[in-house]
């Protein structure tokens, strides 16, 4: 029986190369491709549309967009449009974003749980082709619907998956979402707590943990030279530990290491700064929170995440030969 596996693309590759990668991933039996949208570098929606257009079976997910910067009507219309392009193949991965980036572009992330609950509820109702009036604290709409004159008017099958990191958001995800996008740069045992929280949330809506899909981002660097694979991951972790505090906290890295890296890196970080600071990331951390090494070593680490509750690893190729990574985890 084949195992579920997906590909994660961010901004490390030329966008047109990404089209080749997703076609190859589909050919080798991958289930999905997820496109990042985190830093101010690459919007998720444009690549998702491109991936959907050049594939036939591959699911296409946002990994993840935020719930602050797209009006709820536009958000629903966007995923309706993607579903028109690739019916029943689109996944809406959505998250609460993070500071300082959100703050720096004028977003005040207050009451993130309330904001997420309202977004998910109204997005789902709109994609279900309901006419919606709702006046919440963050979402306020009056008699709106997806105003389709030409095309399919039936409810759309677009799973909504929350990219949750904190405990309260994880529990909310279990309650209201179709699934969770578990974070990367965490050890496999991080998932144990996540499973407890998801199950607690699921019970609130009369569901079980098995009703919640649990794909997980996994940093994956595959090379026949283990040291080279690890060094590529080291550069990524250097940047992420300093600039995405929620990931640093979840990974269990000491604040002392994070502060020291932070003192070297600017925003955005330059390649020179990353090279200067990367020695601060120890081998032990790389091996603990990523799947980095030879093909056999990478497969073994990914299996640890599966054993700890991940239903579908979403592999983030941080460098090197992307096709080698796809071959390493191929199902066909």
What does this protein look like?
By secondary structure, the protein is an alpha/beta fold. It is 45% helix and 16% strand. The protein has helices at 15-27, 45-54, 72-85, 101-104, 112-127, 167-176, 190-204, 226-243, 245-251, 255-264, 271-277, 283-289, 295-307, 322-328; strands at 6-9, 32-35, 59-62, 65-66, 90-95, 132-135, 140-144, 160-163, 179-180, 215-222, 291-293, 312-317. Helix 6 links the parallel strand 8 and strand 9. The N and C termini lie close together (11 Å).
Largest sheet: 10 strands, parallel
The number of E-state strands comes to 12
Shape: globular
Would you tell me the structural class of the helices and strands?
Answer: alpha/beta
Helix content: 40-55%
- Helix-strand string: EHEHEEHEHHEEEHEHEHHHHHEHEH
Unreliable stretches covering 5 or more consecutive residues: none
Strand proportion, as a percent range, falls in 15-25%
**CATH C-level label:** Alpha Beta
- Enumerate how many helices there are, as a single number: 14
CATH homologous superfamily assignment = Luciferase-like domain
Overall CATH architecture = Alpha-Beta Barrel
Radius of gyration: 19 Å
Calculate the terminal CA-CA distance, rounded to whole Å.
11 Å
> Which assembly state applies to the chains in this document?
single chain
Number of domain units:
1
The CATH topology is what?
Answer: TIM Barrel
Global mean pLDDT? 94
């Amino acid at each position: 029986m084949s195992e579920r596996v997906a590909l994660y693309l961010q901004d490390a590759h030329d966008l047109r190369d990404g089209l080749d990668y997703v076609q190859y991933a589909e050919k080798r039996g991958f289930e999905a491709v997820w496109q990042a949208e985190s830093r101010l570098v690459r919007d998720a929606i444009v690549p998702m549309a491109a991936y959907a257009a050049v594939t036939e079976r591959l699911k296409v997910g946002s990994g993840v967009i935020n719930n602050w910067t797209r009006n709820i009507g536009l958000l629903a219309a966007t995923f309706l449009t993607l579903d028109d392009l690739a019916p029943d193949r689109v996944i809406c991965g959505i998250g609460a974003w993070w500071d300082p980036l959100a703050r720096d572009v004028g977003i005040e992330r207050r009451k993130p749980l309330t904001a997420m609950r309202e977004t998910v509820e109204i997005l789902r109702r709109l994609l279900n082709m309901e006419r919606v009036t709702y006046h919440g604290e963050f979402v306020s709409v009056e008699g709106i619907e997806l105003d389709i004159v030409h095309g399919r008017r039936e409810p759309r099958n677009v799973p909504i998956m929350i990219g949750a990191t904190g405990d309260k958001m994880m529990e909310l995800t279990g309650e209201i979402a179709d699934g969770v996008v578990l974070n990367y740069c965490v050890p496999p045992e991080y998932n144990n707590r996540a499973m407890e929280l998801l199950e607690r949330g699921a019970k609130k809506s009369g569901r079980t943990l098995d009703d919640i899909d649990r794909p997980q981002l996994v940093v994956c660097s595959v090379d026949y030279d283990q040291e080279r694979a690890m060094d590529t991951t080291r550069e990524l972790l250097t940047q992420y530990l300093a600039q995405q505090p929620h990931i640093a906290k979840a990974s269990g890295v000491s604040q002392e290491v994070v502060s020291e890296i932070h003192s070297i890196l600017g925003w955005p970080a330059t390649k020179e700064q990353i090279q200067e600071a990367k020695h601060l990331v120890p081998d032990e951390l790389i091996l603990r929170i990523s799947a980095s090494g030879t093909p056999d070593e990478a497969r073994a680490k990914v299996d640890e995440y599966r054993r700890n509750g991940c239903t579908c690893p979403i592999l983030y190729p941080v460098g090197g030969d992307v096709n080698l990574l796809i071959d390493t985890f191929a199902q066909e």
